[in-house]
Amino acid sequence: MSMPDCIRLEVGEPNFSTAPHIIEAAHHAALEGHTRYTDNSGIFELRAAIAEQAEESTGREVLPEQVIVTSGAVGALFSTLTCLLDPGDEVIILNPSWPNYQMQLQLLGAVARVVETSPENAYLPTIQQLEEATNAATKALIINTPCNPTGAMFSGDLLNEITQFARHADIFLIADEVYSRITFEEPQISTACYDTDGRVVSINSFSKTYAMTGWRVGYAIAPAILAPLIRKCQEPTVSCVNSPAQHASLAALTGPQHLVEEMRNAYLNRRDIALEMLSQANIPVCTPGGAFYLWVDVSQSGRTAKDFSLDLIHNHQVAIVPGTTFGAENSDRVRISLASEVSDLQEGLRRLISELKR
Ligand code: PLP
Predict the structure, then answer these.
(1) Distance from Cα 72 to the centre of ligand 1, integer Å
(2) Which of 100, 177, 325, 335 to mutate to test the pocket of ligand 1 (most atoms within 8 A of CB)?
(3) In this predicted model, what pLDDT tens digit does every residue of 7-33 receive, in sequence order?
(4) What is the pTM of this model?
(5) Beta-strand (E) ranges in 160-251?
(6) Residue 216 CB neighbour total at 10 angstroms
Protein backbone atom coordinates (compact mmCIF):
# COMPACT_ATOMS: atom_id res chain seq x y z
CA MET A 1 0.00 0.00 0.00
CA SER A 2 1.52 3.37 -0.92
CA MET A 3 0.90 6.36 1.33
CA PRO A 4 2.16 9.49 -0.44
CA ASP A 5 1.04 11.90 2.30
CA CYS A 6 2.65 9.92 5.10
CA ILE A 7 4.67 11.97 7.62
CA ARG A 8 7.95 10.12 7.88
CA LEU A 9 9.43 10.24 11.37
CA GLU A 10 11.13 6.87 10.98
CA VAL A 11 14.05 7.97 8.80
CA GLY A 12 17.62 7.39 9.93
CA GLU A 13 19.36 9.87 7.67
CA PRO A 14 19.77 13.65 7.51
CA ASN A 15 17.06 15.48 5.53
CA PHE A 16 19.74 17.83 4.17
CA SER A 17 21.46 17.65 0.80
CA THR A 18 25.18 17.03 0.39
CA ALA A 19 26.95 20.42 0.09
CA PRO A 20 27.70 21.55 -3.50
CA HIS A 21 31.49 21.73 -2.99
CA ILE A 22 31.48 18.03 -2.03
CA ILE A 23 29.48 17.06 -5.11
CA GLU A 24 31.79 19.17 -7.29
CA ALA A 25 34.85 17.41 -5.88
CA ALA A 26 33.44 14.05 -7.00
CA HIS A 27 32.66 15.49 -10.44
CA HIS A 28 36.18 16.88 -10.85
CA ALA A 29 37.75 13.67 -9.58
CA ALA A 30 35.89 11.63 -12.18
CA LEU A 31 36.79 14.09 -14.96
CA GLU A 32 40.43 14.01 -13.87
CA GLY A 33 40.52 10.25 -14.27
CA HIS A 34 40.00 9.04 -10.71
CA THR A 35 37.81 6.28 -12.06
CA ARG A 36 39.89 3.22 -11.25
CA TYR A 37 40.32 0.92 -8.28
CA THR A 38 42.12 2.52 -5.37
CA ASP A 39 44.19 0.86 -2.66
CA ASN A 40 42.00 -1.51 -0.61
CA SER A 41 42.38 0.93 2.31
CA GLY A 42 41.41 4.01 0.32
CA ILE A 43 43.30 6.91 -1.26
CA PHE A 44 46.27 8.11 0.75
CA GLU A 45 45.16 11.79 0.91
CA LEU A 46 41.86 10.84 2.53
CA ARG A 47 43.50 8.45 5.01
CA ALA A 48 46.05 11.12 5.90
CA ALA A 49 43.31 13.74 6.47
CA ILE A 50 41.32 11.32 8.64
CA ALA A 51 44.46 10.42 10.63
CA GLU A 52 45.28 14.10 11.15
CA GLN A 53 41.79 14.85 12.41
CA ALA A 54 41.87 11.79 14.71
CA GLU A 55 45.21 12.90 16.10
CA GLU A 56 43.78 16.33 16.89
CA SER A 57 40.72 14.91 18.62
CA THR A 58 42.50 12.18 20.62
CA GLY A 59 45.89 13.72 21.33
CA ARG A 60 47.41 10.40 20.27
CA GLU A 61 49.53 9.61 17.26
CA VAL A 62 47.43 8.18 14.40
CA LEU A 63 49.15 7.03 11.22
CA PRO A 64 47.44 6.94 7.79
CA GLU A 65 48.28 3.20 7.79
CA GLN A 66 45.84 2.76 10.68
CA VAL A 67 42.95 4.14 8.63
CA ILE A 68 40.83 1.94 6.37
CA VAL A 69 38.28 3.74 4.21
CA THR A 70 35.20 1.56 3.96
CA SER A 71 31.80 1.28 2.39
CA GLY A 72 30.05 3.32 5.07
CA ALA A 73 30.37 2.61 8.77
CA VAL A 74 28.49 -0.58 7.95
CA GLY A 75 31.50 -1.75 5.93
CA ALA A 76 33.94 -0.65 8.64
CA LEU A 77 32.06 -2.69 11.23
CA PHE A 78 31.68 -5.74 9.05
CA SER A 79 35.33 -5.86 7.96
CA THR A 80 36.44 -5.32 11.57
CA LEU A 81 34.19 -8.07 12.92
CA THR A 82 35.17 -10.39 10.06
CA CYS A 83 38.83 -10.10 10.90
CA LEU A 84 38.29 -10.44 14.67
CA LEU A 85 35.80 -13.28 14.94
CA ASP A 86 35.54 -17.00 14.45
CA PRO A 87 32.15 -18.74 14.53
CA GLY A 88 31.03 -19.19 18.13
CA ASP A 89 32.97 -16.18 19.42
CA GLU A 90 31.01 -13.76 21.57
CA VAL A 91 30.61 -10.01 21.30
CA ILE A 92 28.99 -7.86 23.97
CA ILE A 93 26.42 -5.41 22.67
CA LEU A 94 23.99 -3.21 24.55
CA ASN A 95 20.22 -3.14 24.47
CA PRO A 96 18.83 -0.99 22.96
CA SER A 97 21.22 -0.69 20.04
CA TRP A 98 21.35 -0.34 16.28
CA PRO A 99 20.06 -3.69 14.90
CA ASN A 100 22.84 -4.14 12.32
CA TYR A 101 25.29 -5.21 15.06
CA GLN A 102 23.14 -8.29 15.75
CA MET A 103 22.67 -8.93 12.03
CA GLN A 104 26.38 -8.78 11.26
CA LEU A 105 27.21 -11.08 14.17
CA GLN A 106 24.59 -13.52 12.96
CA LEU A 107 26.09 -13.50 9.44
CA LEU A 108 29.49 -14.32 10.93
CA GLY A 109 28.16 -17.13 13.12
CA ALA A 110 29.15 -15.18 16.24
CA VAL A 111 27.07 -14.80 19.41
CA ALA A 112 25.70 -11.47 20.65
CA ARG A 113 25.85 -11.26 24.45
CA VAL A 114 23.32 -8.54 25.28
CA VAL A 115 23.73 -6.21 28.26
CA GLU A 116 20.54 -4.39 29.23
CA THR A 117 20.56 -0.66 29.79
CA SER A 118 17.68 1.37 31.20
CA PRO A 119 16.44 4.95 31.60
CA GLU A 120 17.34 4.72 35.33
CA ASN A 121 20.99 4.43 34.29
CA ALA A 122 20.72 6.91 31.39
CA TYR A 123 20.99 3.96 28.98
CA LEU A 124 24.61 3.39 29.96
CA PRO A 125 26.11 0.06 31.06
CA THR A 126 27.89 -0.48 34.38
CA ILE A 127 31.31 -2.11 34.51
CA GLN A 128 29.81 -4.85 36.68
CA GLN A 129 27.30 -5.69 33.95
CA LEU A 130 30.09 -5.84 31.36
CA GLU A 131 32.17 -8.08 33.62
CA GLU A 132 29.23 -10.41 34.16
CA ALA A 133 28.70 -10.68 30.39
CA THR A 134 32.32 -11.62 29.72
CA ASN A 135 33.62 -15.17 29.40
CA ALA A 136 36.42 -17.06 27.66
CA ALA A 137 34.66 -16.77 24.29
CA THR A 138 34.29 -12.96 24.44
CA LYS A 139 36.30 -11.20 21.75
CA ALA A 140 34.92 -7.67 21.70
CA LEU A 141 32.49 -5.10 23.05
CA ILE A 142 30.62 -2.72 20.74
CA ILE A 143 29.58 0.66 22.09
CA ASN A 144 27.84 3.49 20.23
CA THR A 145 28.06 7.05 21.44
CA PRO A 146 26.01 9.16 20.89
CA CYS A 147 23.63 6.23 20.69
CA ASN A 148 21.07 5.33 18.09
CA PRO A 149 18.23 5.07 19.27
CA THR A 150 18.46 6.60 22.78
CA GLY A 151 20.77 9.58 22.21
CA ALA A 152 22.73 8.49 25.32
CA MET A 153 26.32 9.73 25.49
CA PHE A 154 29.22 8.04 27.25
CA SER A 155 31.25 10.48 29.36
CA GLY A 156 35.04 10.56 29.23
CA ASP A 157 35.18 8.94 32.69
CA LEU A 158 32.95 6.06 31.63
CA LEU A 159 34.90 5.55 28.39
CA ASN A 160 38.09 5.46 30.42
CA GLU A 161 36.60 2.82 32.76
CA ILE A 162 35.29 0.79 29.84
CA THR A 163 38.68 0.87 28.13
CA GLN A 164 40.28 -0.36 31.37
CA PHE A 165 37.67 -3.11 31.57
CA ALA A 166 38.50 -4.15 27.95
CA ARG A 167 42.20 -4.21 28.90
CA HIS A 168 41.60 -6.45 31.93
CA ALA A 169 39.29 -8.72 29.96
CA ASP A 170 41.75 -8.67 27.03
CA ILE A 171 39.09 -7.97 24.43
CA PHE A 172 38.77 -5.42 21.62
CA LEU A 173 36.60 -2.35 22.03
CA ILE A 174 34.73 -1.23 18.93
CA ALA A 175 33.50 2.34 19.29
CA ASP A 176 30.84 3.35 16.78
CA GLU A 177 31.10 7.14 16.68
CA VAL A 178 29.07 7.95 13.56
CA TYR A 179 27.05 10.60 15.44
CA SER A 180 30.05 12.11 17.23
CA ARG A 181 29.71 15.49 15.50
CA ILE A 182 25.99 15.73 16.31
CA THR A 183 25.95 16.56 20.02
CA PHE A 184 23.81 19.07 21.87
CA GLU A 185 25.36 20.00 25.22
CA GLU A 186 28.79 18.41 25.53
CA PRO A 187 31.17 17.36 22.75
CA GLN A 188 31.70 13.61 22.34
CA ILE A 189 35.08 12.46 23.60
CA SER A 190 36.60 9.75 21.44
CA THR A 191 37.11 6.36 23.08
CA ALA A 192 40.53 6.17 21.41
CA CYS A 193 41.74 8.89 23.84
CA TYR A 194 41.98 6.16 26.50
CA ASP A 195 43.52 3.44 24.37
CA THR A 196 46.96 2.85 25.83
CA ASP A 197 47.65 -0.59 24.37
CA GLY A 198 46.01 -0.78 20.94
CA ARG A 199 42.62 -2.40 21.50
CA VAL A 200 40.16 0.28 20.36
CA VAL A 201 38.78 0.34 16.84
CA SER A 202 37.03 3.64 16.09
CA ILE A 203 34.26 3.46 13.53
CA ASN A 204 33.11 6.61 11.79
CA SER A 205 31.44 7.82 8.65
CA PHE A 206 30.68 10.74 6.36
CA SER A 207 26.99 9.71 6.23
CA LYS A 208 25.52 11.60 9.15
CA THR A 209 28.08 14.37 9.68
CA TYR A 210 28.05 15.62 6.09
CA ALA A 211 24.62 14.39 4.92
CA MET A 212 26.30 11.83 2.65
CA THR A 213 24.41 8.60 3.39
CA GLY A 214 24.14 7.64 -0.29
CA TRP A 215 27.84 8.09 -1.03
CA ARG A 216 28.69 5.13 1.18
CA VAL A 217 31.96 6.25 2.70
CA GLY A 218 33.01 5.43 6.25
CA TYR A 219 36.19 4.38 7.97
CA ALA A 220 37.79 2.36 10.71
CA ILE A 221 40.81 3.58 12.67
CA ALA A 222 42.46 0.49 14.08
CA PRO A 223 45.56 -0.46 16.08
CA ALA A 224 48.56 -0.93 13.76
CA ILE A 225 48.46 -4.70 14.20
CA LEU A 226 44.80 -4.96 13.16
CA ALA A 227 44.59 -2.41 10.33
CA PRO A 228 46.25 -4.58 7.63
CA LEU A 229 43.84 -7.43 8.45
CA ILE A 230 40.78 -5.18 8.16
CA ARG A 231 42.21 -3.90 4.87
CA LYS A 232 42.59 -7.50 3.67
CA CYS A 233 38.96 -8.28 4.50
CA GLN A 234 37.88 -5.59 2.04
CA GLU A 235 39.46 -7.28 -0.97
CA PRO A 236 36.94 -10.14 -1.29
CA THR A 237 33.91 -8.05 -0.33
CA VAL A 238 34.15 -4.52 -1.82
CA SER A 239 37.82 -4.31 -2.98
CA CYS A 240 37.76 -0.56 -2.39
CA VAL A 241 35.34 2.30 -1.98
CA ASN A 242 34.08 4.20 -5.06
CA SER A 243 36.95 6.47 -6.05
CA PRO A 244 35.07 9.75 -6.82
CA ALA A 245 33.18 9.30 -3.53
CA GLN A 246 36.51 9.13 -1.69
CA HIS A 247 37.55 12.43 -3.30
CA ALA A 248 34.18 13.91 -2.31
CA SER A 249 34.80 12.79 1.27
CA LEU A 250 38.21 14.43 1.24
CA ALA A 251 36.53 17.70 0.22
CA ALA A 252 33.99 17.23 3.01
CA LEU A 253 36.70 16.75 5.63
CA THR A 254 39.04 19.52 4.49
CA GLY A 255 36.44 22.06 3.28
CA PRO A 256 34.19 24.49 5.18
CA GLN A 257 32.69 23.01 8.34
CA HIS A 258 29.95 25.56 9.08
CA LEU A 259 27.31 23.34 7.45
CA VAL A 260 27.99 20.63 10.02
CA GLU A 261 27.26 23.18 12.75
CA GLU A 262 24.13 24.42 10.95
CA MET A 263 22.73 20.89 10.71
CA ARG A 264 23.51 20.28 14.37
CA ASN A 265 21.69 23.49 15.31
CA ALA A 266 18.67 22.41 13.28
CA TYR A 267 18.52 19.04 15.11
CA LEU A 268 18.90 20.83 18.44
CA ASN A 269 16.02 23.19 17.65
CA ARG A 270 13.83 20.24 16.59
CA ARG A 271 14.82 18.27 19.69
CA ASP A 272 13.76 21.10 21.98
CA ILE A 273 10.44 21.67 20.17
CA ALA A 274 9.67 17.93 20.32
CA LEU A 275 10.68 17.56 23.98
CA GLU A 276 8.42 20.48 24.91
CA MET A 277 5.43 18.98 23.08
CA LEU A 278 5.95 15.56 24.67
CA SER A 279 6.47 16.93 28.16
CA GLN A 280 3.28 19.08 27.85
CA ALA A 281 1.46 15.84 27.04
CA ASN A 282 3.08 13.98 29.98
CA ILE A 283 4.80 11.48 27.71
CA PRO A 284 8.10 10.19 29.12
CA VAL A 285 11.10 10.65 26.86
CA CYS A 286 14.85 10.77 27.52
CA THR A 287 16.66 13.96 26.57
CA PRO A 288 19.14 12.89 23.89
CA GLY A 289 22.64 14.29 24.30
CA GLY A 290 23.40 13.63 20.64
CA ALA A 291 22.37 11.90 17.39
CA PHE A 292 18.96 12.82 15.95
CA TYR A 293 16.40 10.57 17.58
CA LEU A 294 13.92 10.57 20.46
CA TRP A 295 13.31 7.40 22.42
CA VAL A 296 9.71 7.75 23.58
CA ASP A 297 7.77 5.71 26.15
CA VAL A 298 4.38 4.79 24.67
CA SER A 299 3.32 2.34 27.39
CA GLN A 300 0.37 4.58 28.38
CA SER A 301 -1.24 3.60 25.06
CA GLY A 302 -1.88 0.17 26.58
CA ARG A 303 -0.51 -1.37 23.38
CA THR A 304 2.84 -2.80 22.39
CA ALA A 305 5.17 -0.46 20.51
CA LYS A 306 4.57 -2.46 17.33
CA ASP A 307 0.76 -2.27 17.61
CA PHE A 308 0.95 1.39 18.52
CA SER A 309 3.19 2.12 15.51
CA LEU A 310 0.83 0.23 13.19
CA ASP A 311 -2.20 2.11 14.58
CA LEU A 312 -0.36 5.40 14.13
CA ILE A 313 0.40 4.76 10.49
CA HIS A 314 -3.05 3.37 9.69
CA ASN A 315 -5.08 5.98 11.57
CA HIS A 316 -2.84 9.04 11.16
CA GLN A 317 -0.34 8.33 8.36
CA VAL A 318 2.68 8.87 10.60
CA ALA A 319 5.61 6.44 10.36
CA ILE A 320 7.83 5.77 13.40
CA VAL A 321 10.01 2.83 14.43
CA PRO A 322 8.85 0.40 17.15
CA GLY A 323 11.42 -0.02 19.91
CA THR A 324 11.61 -3.77 19.32
CA THR A 325 13.64 -3.02 16.17
CA PHE A 326 16.48 -2.18 18.57
CA GLY A 327 16.08 -5.21 20.83
CA ALA A 328 13.19 -7.49 21.78
CA GLU A 329 12.89 -5.98 25.27
CA ASN A 330 11.85 -2.53 24.04
CA SER A 331 8.15 -3.15 23.46
CA ASP A 332 7.18 0.00 25.41
CA ARG A 333 9.29 2.42 23.33
CA VAL A 334 9.32 3.94 19.88
CA ARG A 335 12.01 5.87 18.03
CA ILE A 336 11.14 9.20 16.46
CA SER A 337 13.57 10.82 14.06
CA LEU A 338 14.44 14.51 14.22
CA ALA A 339 15.63 14.39 10.61
CA SER A 340 12.41 15.97 9.30
CA GLU A 341 11.21 19.52 8.75
CA VAL A 342 9.90 21.21 11.91
CA SER A 343 6.36 21.43 10.48
CA ASP A 344 6.30 17.66 9.79
CA LEU A 345 7.76 16.89 13.19
CA GLN A 346 5.15 19.05 14.96
CA GLU A 347 2.23 17.65 12.98
CA GLY A 348 3.53 14.09 13.36
CA LEU A 349 3.87 14.52 17.12
CA ARG A 350 0.38 16.08 17.38
CA ARG A 351 -1.04 12.97 15.73
CA LEU A 352 1.13 10.66 17.86
CA ILE A 353 -0.09 12.34 21.04
CA SER A 354 -3.69 12.07 19.93
CA GLU A 355 -3.26 8.34 19.13
CA LEU A 356 -1.55 7.80 22.48
CA LYS A 357 -4.41 9.44 24.41
CA ARG A 358 -7.09 7.58 22.46
N1 PLP B 1 26.16 3.08 13.16
C2 PLP B 1 24.99 3.55 13.62
C3 PLP B 1 24.78 3.62 15.08
C4 PLP B 1 24.00 3.97 12.74
O5 PLP B 1 22.85 4.45 13.22
C6 PLP B 1 24.21 3.87 11.35
C7 PLP B 1 23.18 4.25 10.39
O8 PLP B 1 22.03 4.43 10.69
C9 PLP B 1 25.45 3.39 10.91
C10 PLP B 1 26.40 2.99 11.84
C11 PLP B 1 25.76 3.21 9.44
O12 PLP B 1 26.29 4.34 8.87
P13 PLP B 1 26.82 4.32 7.37
O14 PLP B 1 25.79 5.01 6.52
O15 PLP B 1 28.09 5.08 7.42
O16 PLP B 1 27.03 2.92 6.95
Answers:
(1) 7
(2) 100
(3) 999 999 999 999 999 999 999 999 999
(4) 0.97
(5) 172-176, 200-205, 218-221
(6) 20
